[in-house]
Design goal:
heterodimer, A: 137 residues, mainly alpha, two-stranded antiparallel ribbon, 5 helices, 2 strands, B: 249 residues, alpha+beta, Ubiquitin-like (UB roll), Fumarate Reductase Iron-sulfur Protein, Chain B, domain 2, 5-stranded mixed β-sheet, 9 helices
């Protein structure tokens, strides 16, 4: 006689996630916004790359496009893209210490120092880039 | 004045009589030193003996009493009624798992994935007992200790939308435990685990929502473990490009 127990046929209920799952919790929504910021950052980079490409077409074509960038639609895009880029930067720098542990010998840098250092570096580089462009005009 | 009571709204799924879960309400006495598990045990003992749920140790060690409390993955043995009173408490089975009955979920998928990452110490060659134990310094212990606190309660799976959306995803706890053994100075099994961890269903499925780490009752940070494994795997890949014949560190 076989004394092994045999699992009876089970009728499992398999829950299905709705497409609105990301609206259920603040943290999920925060994640989705963080992902969405990438779209704006990518769009800004593409626009910038297109501007560089237009440089090869001569000053007239480039200046014409520059003029069109001063339209309200593009200005609105720049403001929105900038805000999303800030959100993107702060949220990713905030979790950097989870991704990369920084060690010097036996000493491990605290998370706040890791985030603070990269933020400080980012501010310095931003000021440097801003200074470079502003002083050339 | 009548004694205070609290309302529990508990998921019922009796496969022999229901096609999908329904809620059943129980109004029971409220005591401020009770945890949700005490309340469920009261229901089971005095109100409705047919309610099914898992529990064992009552002290946050066994990891078997995970449920959703008001939509958040919690251990019933460490979740106090007083944090919700006088509001009602909604108790549901852990999200993202198939439901067997009432609050009991099917953990077979997790068990298979946990086994797949080989969460034990692997040696190239076992040394004989006569040579003594494998020594480890406090610093070497510190490397992996927080990840070793995992009790396999799977609350992190209930909190992870990726696990709910992607059937194949290995998931937070299993990947955190794989990381724990990879960090262990006594372990030599990194290469054996690599094909599971770095597969398309492993670390790269994780989108770093981070909720797994928020809900962990033992302070483990699976999100960090997964991101660090991504960094380590990427470094290994670059090393293999630069030094194709070199063995990854």
């Amino acid at each position: 006689m076989n004394h092994r127990s045999v699992a009876p046929e089970r009728k499992l209920y398999r829950p299905v996630m709705k497409w609105t799952w990301w609206l259920k919790k603040k943290s999920y929504l925060f994640f989705m916004v963080r992902e969405l910021t990438s779209v704006f950052v990518a769009a800004f980079i593409l626009l910038y790359a297109y501007e560089l490409f237009l440089l090869s077409k001569g000053p007239q074509v480039y200046d014409l496009f520059q003029e069109s960038l001063r339209s309200p639609v593009f200005l609105l895009f720049y403001v929105v893209a900038f805000l999303f880029a800030l959100f993107h930067t702060f949220t990713w720098f905030g979790v950097l210490s989870k991704v990369q542990v920084v060690r010097l010998g036996k000493w491990t840098a605290p998370p706040a120092l890791v985030t603070g250092s990269v933020l400080a570096g980012w501010v310095v580089v931003s000021i440097g880039v801003g200074w470079f462009f502003l002083t050339r005009h | 004045m009548s004694d205070p009571t609290i309302t529990l709204s508990v998921t019922r799924y009796r496969p022999e009589q229901e096609d999908e879960p329904v809620f059943q309400e129980y109004e029971i006495p409220y005591q401020d030193d009770w945890v949700v598990l005490d309340a469920l045990n009261y229901v089971k003992d005095y109100v409705d003996g047919s309610v099914s749920y898992r529990w064992s140790c009552r002290m946050g060690v066994c990891g078997s009493c995970g449920v959703m409390v008001n939509g958040v993955p919690k251990l019933t043995c460490s979740t106090f009624l007083r944090d919700y009173y006088p509001g009602a408490i909604r108790i549901e089975p852990m999200a993202n798992f198939p439901i067997v009955r009432d609050l009991v979920v099917d953990l077979d998928d997790f068990m298979e994935k946990l086994t797949a990452v080989k969460p034990w110490i692997i040696r190239d060659e076992e040394k004989p007992l006569s040579e003594g134990e494998y020594l480890q310094s406090p610093d070497e212990l510190k490397e992996y200790k927080q990840f070793s606190m995992c009790i396999n309660c799977t609350l992190c799976y209930a909190a992870c939308p990726v696990y709910g959306l992607e059937d194949g995803f290995i998931g937070p706890a299993a990947l955190a435990l794989a990381h724990r053994y990879n960090l262990d100075s006594r372990d030599k099994g990194q290469d054996e685990r690599a094909h599971v961890i770095a597969s398309s269903e492993g670390i790269w499925e994780c989108t770093f929502i981070g909720e797994c780490s928020v809900v962990c009752p033992k302070g483990v940070d699976p999100a960090a473990a997964i991101q660090r494994t991504k960094v380590a795997t990427t470094k290994d890949w670059f090393k293999s490009l630069v030094m194709p014949k070199g063995k990854s560190a």
